[in-house]
Amino acid sequence: MSIEYRRLSCCDKCKSTTLREENFNEIHGYWYGCLNCGYHCWGGRLKNKIKNEKRPPCPAPRDLGIDVCQMCLLAYDHLGYSEVLETHHIDDNPQNNDRLNLFVACTSCHKLIHHQRTYRYNHYMRRSVHDND
Fold first, then answer.
1. Buried b (16+ CB within 10 A) or exposed e, 3-42
2. 42: closest CA among 50, 31, 26?
3. What is the pLDDT of residue 32?
4. 55, 87 Cβ separation under 8 angstroms
5. Which of these, 29, 66, 69, 120, could form a disulfide with 106 (CB 3.0-4.6 Å)?
6. Quick one: how far is CA 18 from the chain centroid?
7. Is the separation of the CB atoms in 57 and 64 below 8 Å?
8. pLDDT per position as a tens digit, 52-72
9. Above 60 in pLDDT, residue 94?
């Protein structure tokens, strides 16, 4: 089964058609650079784009009325250059946009949540397999 990658025809930011393919990665697809505004982005896998279009839109932190990270309490105005506030689904189900399932985190804390979830799950699974031996 071959993987199809999304090919961009215009810049996501300025809508200019002066895009240049600069790189390719099997996970993320094509890396594009806009010659007009300098914006860079991944094209992504076509399968992921189609899957994401089927999801209900996730409420942005501003839609929830929250302008701080609910984990480290860093305010939106004090975020770093490449940081944003992101909406996290507690049950890891992007279809479930119930307010009680949503948590606002800065980019760093959101990465930490997913890293810890993955690490602890893998650690637990390895431990439970060895305990059963």
1. eebeebeebeeeeeeebeeeeeeeeebbebbbeeeeeebb
2. 31
3. 87
4. no
5. 69
6. 26
7. no
8. 677 778 888 988 999 999 999
9. yes
Strand-pair category, 40-42 with 29-34: antiparallel
Six token digits for residue 102: 């949503």
Secondary structure, 3-state, the chain = CCCCECCCCCCCCCCCCCEEEEEEECCCEEEEEECCCCCEEECCEHHHHHHHHHCCCCCCHHHHCCCECCCCCCEHHHCCCCCCEEEEECCCCCCCCCHHHEEEEEHHHHHHHHHHHHHHHHHHHHHHHHHCC
In residues, how long is the chain? 133
Contact between 70 and 104 (Cβ < 8 Å) = yes
Residue 96: how many other CB atoms lie within 10 Å: 13
- Residue 24 Cα distances to 27, 34, 52, angstroms: 9, 15, 21
For residues 116 and 103, give the distance between their C-alpha atoms in angstroms, rounded to a whole number: 16
